Amino acid sequence: MKEKLVKKNNNQGLFKGTSIYVGVTLLLILTLIFSILTSVTMGSVDISAKDIYQIIFYKLFDIGTEESLPSSSAIDIVWFIRLPRIILATCVGMGLSISGLIMQAVVKNPLADPYILGVSSGAYLGATIAIMLGVGSFLGSNYVGICAFIGAFIISILVMVMSNINSKANSTKLLLSGMALSSLCSAFSSFIIYYTDDKERLRSITDWIMGSLAGANWDTIKFIFPIILIAVVFFITQYRTLNLMLLGDEVSITLGKDLHIYRQIYLLVTSLIIGLIVYSSGIIGFVGLIIPHIVRILFGTDHKKIIFINALSGSIFLIWADVLSRIIIPGSELPIGILISMIGTPIFIYLMISKSYGFGGGR
Amino acid sequence: MEMSSKNLVVYLGGKKILNDLSLHIKNKEFVGIIGPNGSGKSTLLKALYRTLRPNSGTIYIDDKNIDDISLKETAKKIAVVAQHNDSDFDFSVIDMVLIGRTPHKKFMERDNPNDYKIALESLEKVGMTNFSDRSFNSLSGGEKQRVILARALAQETKCLILDEPTNHLDIKYQLQFMSIAKSLEITVISAIHDLNIAALYCDKIYAMKSGEIIDYGTPKEVLTKKLIKVLYEVDSEVNINKDTNTMNIVFKPFEIQ
Fold first, then answer.
1. Where does the record place the ABC transporter domain (chain B) (predicted)?
2. Cα(B88)–Cα(B173) distance, rounded to whole angstroms?
3. CA distance A112 to chain B (A)
4. Which residues does B contribute to its contact with A (CB < 8 Å)?
5. Which residues of A touch B82 (CB under 8 A)?
6. Do A301 and B91 touch (CB under 8 A)?
7. With 90 as the cut, is the pLDDT of residue B72 above it?
8. What ipTM describes this predicted complex?
9. A15 to B51: CB separation less than 8 angstroms, yes or no
10. Phi-psi region of B122 (alpha: psi -120 to 50; beta: other; left: phi over 0)
11. C-alpha distances in Å from residue B48, one per residue of B30, B154, B186
12. Span B143-189, pLDDT tens digits
């Protein structure tokens, strides 16, 4: 056994199992492309697949001529509604799953999700102020998103500052600061809602809270996709530090790394991602919690292997969740947050039971 | 590697835990630190391996002030096996050992075949080669401790600090663990509860009480009936086994009326 292992590592120059992860990654990239190309053909308006690809090829690569294209309403549906929405789902799924993974490492807690440090409450307060009080309407059509982004980002910074008072931040202090500020924001939101007492606006807050990809447009995507991609690449380079975070501060110091500064940097990057996601699509829960866990169940904890796999899985998951949310009830759209909890939870429970997966442990 | 401390003072929660403590550990010595609970053994070791900053005093590695050395450089010189190594997240055994290569890695540098070779050799030294694919959390306490020792070995340091590493191990694994540490022929500094184990393995022993060193010397010099009474307030019998030339410390039970 021992000799076999050594031989395998030395002669082939391939680390144990690395080829599997490379294979899985390639497979997931193909699945992602396939998902984008398939999901674009699904929707309430019937447009033939041939027409759809013709439109995409024309718009992307200038292949074909204007005259050969189908009607302009089909072009609008494909190019300005369906495709942006799918690409936004790709961004948001990637951003949520990667932030969830990073957040779990930063606070060293498998229950963490991207919103654990009060980000969602901050966004909620921002959105409440915007919708209920009409603050920030000069910021343009998506002023609610902008206010939510500001709320989310301010809370992230406050959590970091608060947990650094008196002594350096550690995972427990971060969690407690997050919880405290989260309660405070919720209280203020409730206060505003209670005293404004406007049913119509309350309804639009509720809609906003459940998250939706319907607001997708190319301008937003051009802005957030590069940032999320750069963040993913950045975190792929950080796998060693992320692994150390799971082992704790003391062990890290004995291995030559003080985690404090890294925690701050990672929090800043994830806050930015989450802020952008909140801006573009509201609060979509659960993806950032289950995707990292599902990936961990299947591929282990080592961040060297799972960061990119996790990002791709998040994208694929959200694309199909969005497709389902559009077609599951004919003629109307189910909020994606509700759908994800409904289909995600059973998958999660199944994996938890079948792999005897206890809080991130045991394979 | 030599290690020394001068006039270390540590306060924790307003209480003085280390009181003007100085010690000197020579190259390749196996040094035991004994003392009752709360005597400051762990605090001393934490100050030495830098997870705790002393309020005053200086620590030297090979005559260099530890404050002038980066954490990364320290981690290339000193490896640590502490008491508890549980985590909510699980790693495979080989990944856990590979993490020991961290101090040798530059920013963004990935593991290479040489790192795997060192990790596997470390596992072999602790007799855990067959476990390399197992998940760390599924191991028994003794197996976990040996994997952590392998991780420390993968750091390739000239000094090992052990903080009561054999606390939860049965006698076989206690002996095995200490024998592995002894066989490395590097500087070892270990807090030890079991005086018989200390007598078996240590070249030198520091006896600590209330944050001070009260005795220092070879096991035969330090581990006397008198000192054990002073340290632990326990009566004992210290014999030398003539056949094996090992020390044998027997404790007398308390008389409860």
1. 3-235
2. 25
3. 12
4. 49-51, 70-76, 78-80, 82, 85, 87-92, 94-95, 99-100, 102-103, 105, 108, 110-111, 113, 116-117, 120, 124, 129-130, 132-133, 135, 137-138, 155
5. 250-251, 254
6. yes
7. yes
8. 0.89
9. no
10. alpha
11. 15, 20, 16
12. 899 999 999 999 999 999 999 888 878 888 899 899 999 999 999 99
The CA distances from residue B154 to A286, A321, B75, B117, B222, in Å, are 39, 45, 11, 10, 33
Structural domains in chain B, sorted by start: 1-77+159-223 (3.40.50.300), 89-156 (no CATH)
- Rounded to whole angstroms, the Cα distance separating A221 from A55 reads 19
CA distances from A118 to A176, A278, B3, B32, B213 (A): 10, 13, 46, 48, 49
Place of tokens 């010595």: B29
| Contact of A181 with A162, CB cutoff 8 Å | yes
Q: Which of B92, B102, B155 sits opposite A244 (nearest CB)?
A: B102
Residue type, B141: G
For residue B89, the distance in angstroms to the closest alpha carbon of chain A comes to: 5
Neighbours of A87 (CB within 10 A): 21
Any alpha helices (H) in A164-198, and if so which ranges?
171-196
pLDDT in tens, A40-64: 888 777 788 888 888 888 888 877 7
Q: Which pTM value belongs to this model?
A: 0.87
Residue A99, amino acid: S
Q: How far is CA A58 from CA A55, A62, B108, in A?
A: 5, 4, 41
**How distant is the Cα of B78 from the closest Cα of chain A, in angstroms?**
8
